[in-house]
Amino acid sequence: MPTSTPTVPAPAADGRGDQVRHSINVLSDRILVQMPQAEGERRSRAGILIPATAQVSRRLSWAEAVAVGPHVRTVKVGDKVLFNPEDRFEVEVQGDEYVILRERDIHAVATDRIDGGTGLYL
Questions:
Q1: What is the model's pLDDT at position 56?
Q2: pTM over 0.85
Q3: CATH of 1-11+21-36+60-122, one of 3.30.565.10, 3.90.1170.20, 2.30.33.40, 1.20.81.30
């Protein structure tokens, strides 16, 4: 299976100090995901207002897969993945923040590719 090459620009200085754009290839069983922008305050299902500064212990997070390595079997670019935010490595590329995960650290995948189901691969 070929490696996915995302449209994520990697900064590299050339001789003039300008930024040159390179594509990023994710290696092995790694997945590059982008977290949704923080929305600040949120509400629980019961209508309780939860401030942005509130810490929720052991809460899993959803993110969108931007690139996958050649040994990733279940996740494709564009899928939403559920993972523990404590098991991640953050990287910033030209002002955008991304997270690198291992496939084994993903708990669920939400995708349109699964026919006749809920869209969740658990």
A1: 60
A2: no
A3: 2.30.33.40
